[in-house]
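note to self: dont lose this again. the chain is below, predicted strucutre after it. 163 aa total, dont forget to put it in the shared folder this time
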Amino acid sequence: MEIIFKRAWVIFIAVTIANVFILKYRTKKYIVENSGLKDSYHKFFKGLLIYGNIPWVIMMIGDLSGTIKNVFEYFNPKAMKPLVLTFHFSIVVLWILSVRWFYFKKGAEFLETHSGILQRRSIVNGNVNITAKQIKLFFPLMLLGGIVGMIMMWISDFPIPEF
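---
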């Protein structure tokens, strides 16, 4: 139970790394087809590995420093613990950077031209690449879900179980 509730960051970092390797494997054939995009694919994977692990590294610091008892403390930012606030701040910064990248730095277009990174499953056609327009339409809905979750953490009294 300790690995799940105290050292959850280990699992989160492992899943992030696994996702990058899965994406690398899934895009291998597209990179072979269009070798001119190879460097930009690898730059994207490196960025995903770095930025995708920022919140989990903050969790790791809280755990290893002993300032955070378990993962549930991150659901209670009202306690005003510095590393919990840093964790939430990092998520908001990542959201802002994502909005900037998708809408102002042509990130949605990047994902459309770099086949295999974002796909949806279709009954008729199997895996289908997502278009920039679809990304720009659905990203705000996903972001809204995250914002609602963040607001709920700030207004709710979340009990912190002991382990």
